[in-house]
Amino acid sequence: MEEKVATSSGCDYEVFLSFRGPDTRAGFTDFLYTSLKGAGIRTFKDDEDLRKGVEFAPELLRAIKQSKIFIPIFSKDYASSIWCLKEVVQMVECKKNGGKKIMPIFYDVAPSEVRYQIGNYEKSFLLHERKESYDQKTIGEWKDALRAVGEINGWELPRGPTRREGEFARKLTRKVFNELKQAYLVVSDCLVSVDNHVDAIMEKISAQTSETRIIGIHGMGGIGKTTIAKIIYNRLSNNFEDCCFLSNIREMSERKGIECLQNQLISDILKDKCIDIRNIDDGIKTIKDRLSNKRVLLLLDDVHEKNHIDALVGGRDWFGRGSKLLITTRNKEVLDVFEVDNHYELTGMDRSQSLQLFSKHAFRRDSPLDEYIDQSNRVIDIAKGLPLALEVIGSLLSRTEKRKWNDILEKLENVPHTEVQRKLKISYDALEVRHKHIFLDIACLFIGCDKDVMVHFWEKSKFFPKEALIVLQNMSLIKIEENNSVWMHDQLRDLGREIVRQESNTKIQEQSRVWDPKEGLVLLRKHKGEKKVEALRLKLDNHQRYCFSYEGFENLSHLKFLEVDGSIENFCVEERLLWPELPSIFFPTNENSYLLPQLRWLSWHDISPFNIANFSMEDVVIFNLSGSKITDDWKGWSHMKVMMNLKVLDMSNCSLLERLPDSIGSLESLIELDISKTSIKELPDSIGNLKKLKVVKMRESRLSKIPDVLWSMGNLEHIMASSGVYGFRERHFHVQIGNGICGSQSLRILILESADIYPLPRLPESLINLQMSILHMGTFPDLSNLTNLEKMDLEFGWPHHDVISNGLGEHPMPRWLGNLSKLEFLALCSHHGTTSPTNLALPPQLKSLRLECPNLRHLPRLPSSLSYLKLDGCKSLCSMEDLSNLKKLSSLRILSAAIAEIQGLGCLENLRDLYLHSLRQVKILPDLSNLNKLTSLRVEYCDKLVEIQGQLPRFLDFFHVDDCGSLQKLPDLSSLMGKQALFLYNCKKINVEAILDVARLNPRHFKFVDFEQLQILPDLSNSNELIRLQVQQCDNLVEIQGELPQSLEVLEIDSCKSLWKLPNLSSLTGLREVSIGYCDNLVEIPGELPQSLKKLRIFYCGSLQKLPCLSSLIRLRAVRIQNCDNLVEIQGELPQFLEVLEIHSCKSLQKLPNLSSSMGLREVRICFCNDLVEIQGELPQSLEKLVISSCVSLRKLPYLSSLIGLQEVCVLNCGNLVEILSELPQSLEKLEIYSCRSLQKLPNLLSSMGLQEVHIRYCNDLVEIPSELPQSLEKLVISSCESLQKLPNLSSLIRLREFSIHNCDQLVEIPGELPQSLEVLDIYECQFLQELPNLSSLKGLQKVKIIRCRKLNVKAISSLCLEMSVKSVEVDDEYDSEADVEVDDEYDSKEDE
C-alpha cells in the first residue's frame, strides 16, 4: 500500500478508488490518485497485498466504511475480479445505509454493459458460474450491485485520441472537492455549537404562547446571528401557516428600496404574487390593513435603521395575535428604539466549539488530525470565537500544504483580533488575480444575483468565471444558494468594498466600482473630466435629481456596468440624448456611437425616452429594462439589432408592453428572456430564431398561448409561465404543447401554472422539475419516461358532470410513478385514482407527498423515506395502510377524508406536527404518548370523535380542539410539561369540570370558545404561568370569580353577553393588553387599570357609561373605543406617551379629553360621534395622521398649521363643517375631504410643499379651489362639487401624473395648459365643460377617459389620442349607467372604510 491507514477517530479516508490493477493501475488510476492527493483529498488506493485470501482484509473493509465517496473505475475486465465485485457490493450497502456517494467512471465500457452484464461482463460471470466457487445468491448480489451502480449517472471515457485522461482527472478532482465541501455547509453541523444560544432565545420568545413576541438578536458581523435566527425560525415554522423571511434588509433596502421588502412580506403572507407596492406609505397601510388578522412568523435579517422597522413592523397590532418576530441587527440602538420584548447579544464560540467548527472546514471532520493539533490551537487563539473567521481560515488551510501553515498562521497572529476584515483578507490574498477581480465584483455589485447571469458578464474577459466561482465557493468566500443566487457574508462584502476604496486612495474619482447610488451622484456632480469607474450604480428620486449630459457619458469611457433606478420624472436629460422626432427609418446607425464603449451590463428601469443609439451597445450582454414604461412602439427596438452579443434580456414588470417586435429574433446570442408581468398576449414566431435560448420566464403574464416553435428549440433548459390575476379573477391561458418538445433533450425545468393544458405529448427524459396546472384530460398522462424527475407537481381540471355521473372519471393511478427513482417531491391534485389497494406505487426515496385526489379510496403502504405527508380533500379515502413504517415523518396533515382510523399513528416517533381536519368518520384517536417529539396537535371538525385515548405527549406545546361536537372526554393532560397553549372551541359535550381542569393545568395560553354550559369561571389566581386568557362566546358566563393571576399579560373577553362584572385588574402588574367586546351587560370596569397597560380596546359594550381614568398610564400606547353607545365622557387627560387614539360610533360622546398633553400622539381617528361639537385645545405636534369621519355636529377643526409632522388629513361626512381654519402644515402629503357639504372654502395649500395627493368629493358648496397649488402635487381628484366654477391653472405642476374631475356641473373650462408630466386624464359628467387644453404636447399621456361631457368634441379628442398613441382611450358623450355606478361605488367604499 502507498499510504498507511490512519487510526485516529473519525473518517480518515474521504475517497475510495476501486479498480482492476492490470487494466488501469499504471495509467488512468495513477493520474486520478495523484490529482486527488495533490488537492489534499485523503484517497485510498488499495494494494494487491490486501487482496490475499478469501475474506476482506480488515484494513480494506475499514477504508471502504470510512470513505465518504466511492469511485469505481469500470474497465473491460473489472467483473473478472472477485475483489472488485465484493468492493461494489460494500459500496452499495454503505450508500444505502450511510448516505455515502458513488461516482462511477466507465473506462472503455458503456454503462449498459455494467448495468445489464453484457459483453465482457457477461463472459466474466459465465466463468464465475463455471468455477462454482460462489453460490447463486452471492453472484446475484454482485449482479444487483452492478445494476445499481450502472444506473447512476457517471462519466464515460471511451477509447480515442480525444480522451485526455489527465485533464479529466483534474476536472473530476474539482468535482470531488466540491462534493466533500458541500457536505459541511449545512446548518445541522453547528447545532451542537449553538444550542445554548437557541435555548436561551426560545425561552425569551415564549414559542407556544398566543402573545405576540418580538425578540432582537444583536452582535458584530459574522458572529452567527442569521444562523441562530434561521434555526429558531425552522423550529417555530411548523406552528405557523404564515411565515416570511426577509433577508439582508440593509442591502435590499439600499438596492431596491424598502418597498421591495414590504412587497415580499405582503406577498409571502397573503400568498399573492400580484401585490404592487408603489411607495412606503402604501406598503405600511397594506401591511396594517391586510396582515393585522394574520398570526405570522417573521424573521427580519440585518436591520440597520429605525425606518426599516417603521416600514415593516411599525407596531404589534400590525400582525395578528400570537405572531413571533425575530430581528437580527448589528445596531443594538435599533432594538432599543423599537422596544422589543427581549434582546439577546450573541457572543463568540467557546474553545471546544471553535475547534469543532474549524475542524469541519479544515479537515472535514469533527476534530483535527493528530499532527495538526498545535496549529489548530493557534487558529483558535487567532479567531477569538468568531464563526466566520473560523470558517474562512479553515477553508484557506484545507487547500494548503502543511509546510506552509506556520507561515500563514504567523501572518494571522500579527493582525489584531478586532480587525476582522484584515483576518479575512488573508483568504483574499491567496486568490489569483482573476479570482480577486470576480470577488470584488460580487462584493460591490452582484450579491443576490443569479450565478449564470454573472458568468455571462465575465465570459469574454478571460477571467474564467465558472472556475473562479468554484474556487470562491470552496474557499467559503461565497455560497451558491438553492435558487442559484450568489451569497456573500456581510464581513466579506465589506472587506471587498474596503479593498476597492483603498485601491483608489479613498478618492471617489479614482474608484473602479461605485455601488452606493448616493456616492455615484457625488461622482457625477462634483468631479469633472475622465473617470476611472468601471461599475456605477445610481438611484434618483425627488430629493436626488441629476441632469444627464452627453459630456457626462463621454467621461465614463471605462464603464462596463451601469445600473440606473428611479422614475424619469425625477431627473432631466440633455436634448440630444433623447430620441429624435423622426420616423424609425431615419434613426441614426451605431457607427458614431462612442458613448460607453466598454459597456457590458446595462440596467435602466425607465429608459424609454433615452436614445440608446448614443451608446455603444455591441458588447452589452445583459440588458435589464424591468419596470420600464417601454411599449411595443418604443424607438429603441430598431436599434437593438446591433446587440449581437446580448445574452440576457429582462423586461419583467414592463406593464405597458403588449407585444414583442419581430426583430427580437435577430438577437441570435440571447440565452435568457424574461417577460414576466407584462401585457404581452402572444410571442412572435421569430422567437424560433433564437437558437441559443435556454431560459424563458413568463410569470404572471397575459399570454393567450405559447407558440409551438418554443417546444422544439434545441437548447432550451427552463420554461416558466403562469397567468396573472386581473381584478379579482385568475385568468388562465391556453397551452397546446407541441410534439416537438420530445426532442428537446436539454429541457430540465418546465413550470406551467394557471394554464389550460390539453393532452400532453411525450415529454423529454431530461426534465428534473415538472409543475403543471391545470391539465385537462380524461386519463393520467404517461410520464413513465421521465426517470430524471426530482420534483413533480400536477393539478388536473375537474371532469364534466356527465363524465362523473357515468363513472368515466375514475382511472387508476399509474404504477410507473414507483419507477421514478430520483423523485423526492410529489404533489398531485387529481380526480384520477380509484379502488385497488395496490394501484398507487410510489418511489422509495420520496420525501414529500401531497395528494388532493377526491376519488382516491385507498392509500397503500408509503415509502419509509417520507418526512412530509398531506392528504387534502381526498373525500373518498376510506382506508389507509399502516403508517408505522414512516419513522422519518415529521409532519402529517389529513383534511377532509372518509377514513375511520389512522393505523400506526402512535408509532411515528419523529412526528412534530399533527393536523386532522374534517375526518367525520373518526371516532377514536389512539394513545399518542409515545410521540415524544410531537409539539403541535390540532383536531378540528371531527364530528364523531368521542375520545382521544391515553395521555398526550409530555412535551406537547400546542393543543387545539375545535368543533368536535361528540367529544365527551379530553385525554389525560396531567403529564404535559409543555402546555404552552391549550385551545378548546365549541365542544359542547365536554362537561364544565373538564374545562376547569384544563384551566387548572396552569397553561401559558388558555383559550376556550362557545361553551354555553359555563356560568362561572373560578378563581385563577394560582395559575401563575398563565400569560394570555381568552374567553369567547360563552353566553351564560355571568362572572369571573376571585382574582386573575399576576403573570397575566393579555386579557381578551369577547361575546359573553351575560357577563356583568370583571375582576379588579389594578394588581396585575404585568398586564399589557386588555380587549373587551360584545359584553352587552357590562356596566363598568372596576378599580384602576394597571400601570403596565400598553393597549386598551373596548367595543360593543352598550351598557358601559364611563372608563377608568387613563392619565396615569404612562406605558399606554393605543386606545380604541368602538360602538359604546352610552359612553358620555372619557375622564381626565390622556396619558403623555399615547400614540394612537381611535373613537368610533360612540353616539353619546359629547366631549373629547384635551389631547395637547399627549406629546407622542401619532394618529387620531374620530368616527361616527354624532354629538361631538368640537375638538378642544391644540393637537400635539407629534401628530402624523388625522381622520375625522361622520361627526355630523362638528363645525370646525382645530388649527393644524403648527403640526410639523402631520402627513395625512382625511375629513369625511362632516356635513356642518364650514371651514378649515389656518394654513395646512408644510409636512402634509395627502389631503382628503369627502362629503363636507357645507364647506365653502379650502385653506391655502401652497405652504404644504410636500403635498402629493388632494381628493375633494361631494363638497356641494365649494365654489373654487385655491389659485395656487404646490409643485409637489402628483394626484388631483375633484368629484361632485356642484358649485365649483373655477379651477386653478395646473401648468406649473411639473409632477402631476393624474388629474380626475367628476360631476362638476358648473365647471366651464380648465384654464391654461396641462403639465407635461400628466399620465392620466379622467373627466366624467361635466355637463358645461366646453373645451380642454391642448393635449398634443403631453408626451407621457397614457390614459384618457371622458364620459358624458356633452359640450366637448369627443370625436376630435379621440382622434387626437389615437394619433398620440395613448394606450387607453375611453370617450363617450352619451349616458353611461355603468360609469355612474363606478363613481358611486368608489364613494360608498370610502364611506364604509
TrEMBL record:
Alphabetical keyword list: Leucine-rich repeat, NAD, Plant defense, Repeat
Region listing for Disordered, in residue ranges: 1372-1393
One Pfam family matching this protein: NB-ARC
Name of protein: TIR domain-containing protein
Organism taxonomic ancestry: Eukaryota, Viridiplantae, Streptophyta, Embryophyta, Tracheophyta
PROSITE patterns registered for this protein in UniProt: TIR (PS50104)
Keyword Repeat: yes
Species this protein is from: Eucalyptus globulus (Tasmanian blue gum)
Any one biological process term the GO annotation gives: defense response
Record-annotated TIR domain positions: 11-176
